[in-house]
Amino acid sequence: MSDFELLSPDGGALSSPFDSVRGGAGGASGARGADPLLDGLNPPQARAVEARGPALLIVAGAGSGKTRVLTHRIAHLIRNKEAWPSQILAITFTNKAASEMRERVAGLLGDAAEGMWISTFHSACVRILRREAERFGYVAGFTIYDSADSRALLKRIIKETEADSYGFTPANTSAKISRLKNELSDADTYAATANEADPRERIFVEIFRTYEQELRRANAFDFDDLIGQTVHLFRSHPDVAAIYQRRFRHILVDEYQDTNHAQYSLIRELTRSVDPDTADRLVPPVREREVDGTGAIPGASLTVVGDSDQSIYAFRGADIRNIVEFERDFPGAEVVKLEQNYRSTQNILSAANAVIGNNFDRQEKNLFTTEGDGEKITGFTGYSQHDEARFVAEEIEDLHRAGLAYGDIAVFYRTNSQTRALEELLIRSAIPYRVLGGTKFYERAEIKDAMAYLTSLANPYDPIAWSRLLGVPKRGIGPMAEAQLAVFQEAQGISFHEAMLRADEIGFGPKVRGAILGLGELLRAARMAAGGGGTEDPEVEKKPTPVADVLKLILDETEMIEKLRAKRDPQDEARAENLEELVSVAREFDVRNPGAGLLEFLTEVSLVAAADELDDQSGTVSLMTLHTAKGLEFPAVFITGVEEGLLPHQMSVDEIGGINEERRLMYVGITRARKRLYLTLASTRATYGDIGVAMPSRFLQEIPDSLIDWRQTPGEVTSRGGTESRALNAPRGEGRSGSRSSRSSGRPESSVVFGRGGGSGAAAVAEPASGNMQSALDKWRERKRLAKEAQAAGGGFPNLVGTSIRDNGDLELAPGDRIRHEDYGEGRVTGITGEGSKRVAHTVFDSVGERKLLVKLSPITKVE
DNA sequence: CTTATGAGTCTTTTT
DNA sequence: GACTCATAAG
């Protein structure tokens, strides 16, 4: 109940909490006239802060200051005493966005910001579900299944129902179930409309139904349930819904264009009014000022922020109609458009506008800035992805030398698999980087193993966690023993932990029984240590034990780390380190959340998003997918792999609206850049292990030629990679260093060239102006044909730079040595820094000048 | 019951 | 080319 203390303050107290808060932002000490919260906002922004009414849609183009508007709007509501912090619910897309918003609101309001709910959809729902779980057959300690857990469960179900012969796989089944859940469907609803005559349909219904039952038995929710079950809870328990409908008077939703039907429904439920009857039954009783004339509590005011041009999550159910039809959905809604961009240069915005303008089904909207043109966009086509990555690495070094911090640079790509080539070159070049998302820390096998123990402590009925921990470390408990235990557990209706402690009732061999009993004892001890319910002694459960201590106990007792270290595989050392890292993550959590327990830790871990890993202080280049990049910004941005089949992705080409969504993805990528934007591609790309030819993306042709300064156009790519490619990169003609800032009036020249296209004979492409996309394309097509022939002839490609892992660990280098590098040719070492495997050779190459090289991994040899 | 080997599948994008 | 999975041998 403590959450509600601030809910219905009496009139006198209303003003008191705010008196001490003054001038958090502006410092305009108490002046009545100019509102510091509106200071420096443009008219539409100010309107978005001040507008009141039942519903507000803020159409916020990229970089138009929407976070500022949102935070100021919240602060404005509170500062004007229109709302208490506890009456605010703000939903963001990632935890990082949530904490940023929380910090910024706190910066404006100070302590007065305490008590607001600022979180993601999923976190907010977990909070509600944990509180209300008992009302519908769950326990507060429920487990959250991530997609891997769901798939593990589905795998078992598919096997048991022998559905695999019908083409059901964990992946496709999970995708289908997820899609249905996002539509708020369930097995029964689906069964009602399913075609009974189709055996595949019948089987799917059976799988779906079993999956639902198993989740419930496991006391677990999957990701989609978190939203869907909350909606379900609200709809089936109006009295519970009323608690939240009453409490939240102002609901703000960010990235509204990416909400799916379930999330939309959740918002609808939360903003519903409470009818007089239900309001009457509420505890504590409603006050007069909370209700309208009829005794009903009016619905909360709703503010949504979004940009339909940035809708990129259709694949997981995001429905663009939510934002497009907002005005119809919420009558009386006001719409404010923010079009002035405060992030990027005009050149970058022009490119973005040009690309997105090709989406016919959108509302006209044009971003503009008063910042000036800035530098041109840089284009580069590598021969291979290796070549492309090399360019990225070199350019990053150049930017860094020019004074840009590594942390100001980001590299985007469409698919996670593109990281490999990039990473390789970044490592070699001794550039600090980090990959956001991808195979996340928490998805690593050893981390999941350790986490399974913790999950099982919190939820001893969770079969996925339990089954996982049985096998790690190896202790002789195999599938047979597991199955028998599971049967026993189900028959007795007890937890897995209890079942293990009663292993002697099942009749195992002495060795297996010993192992099971030992493990059961360990879990019991750990459960007691964690302060969980397994204790008879009521004295014991007081303050929760630090999560790190529980984890340490498990790791020590199971000797997981030692056992990894004892193995030969060098990968296992890294795994051991990951486990140690997990302990420090837990320790940090304990410090950050004193009084929180295992459950909070598990929840937090389950809901981390890729972008949450971003740390502004890290001083490293950030690598991420275009999806992860949404909502972020960087002074310098590389978008790599701008090729047909990759961006737009092959998979999207046949989907309806697929290309438009890919185009929005491109748009999102471009608009992340503040000052410098690079678009890179490769003319060949390895997929599935063998090398295919790649075409430049259609999106490149949608950008006016005058905006891109091509260092190497698709047509110029030579089939000879390696050292000589540099000659082609070298500045040509007037050189690019001098007249880079072509005035806004200076575009005719290149557009004339552009228009010439067509005829293959327009040959003289080798001329200085490298920015001719059309003829470049022709040339490129010719190359592609040749390349295909060459490959068909079995000759393969000449000079393909090997990607084999090398190790120069023992190579001794000293200043003055001459070395030969596969890509850069010969050069002289000027200095060595770093220790052991992190030794870096600073080298001046004859052809390309100064480079940093990681000695251990660079393709170098010493020249005598 | 664990481990080694080979075949088969796969790659969009994520909370 | 990498990873998972099934099969067979230790």
TrEMBL record:
Keyword Isomerase: yes
Key word Isomerase present: yes
Pfam families for the chain: PcrA_UvrD_tudor (PF21196), UvrD-helicase (PF00580), UvrD_C (PF13361)
An annotated Gene Ontology molecular function: DNA binding
A single cellular component GO annotation: DNA helicase complex
UvrD-like helicase C-terminal domain residues: 346-631
UniProt GO BP: recombinational repair
EC number(s) on file: 5.6.2.4
Reaction(s) catalysed (UniProt annotation): ATP + H2O = ADP + phosphate + H(+); Couples ATP hydrolysis with the unwinding of duplex DNA by translocating in the 3'-5' direction
InterPro entries: DNA_helicase_UvrD-like_C, DNA_helicase_UvrD/REP, UvrD-like_ATP-bd
Residues making up the signal peptide according to the UniProt record: none
Binding-site residues, ATP: A60, G61, A62, G63, S64, G65, K66, T67
Alphabetical keyword list: ATP-binding, Helicase, Hydrolase, Isomerase, Nucleotide-binding
Domain UvrD-like helicase ATP-binding: 39-345
Composition bias, Low complexity: 738-754, 762-771
Region Disordered: start-end pairs: 15-44, 712-776
Name this protein carries in UniProt: DNA 3'-5' helicase
Record organism: Leucobacter soli
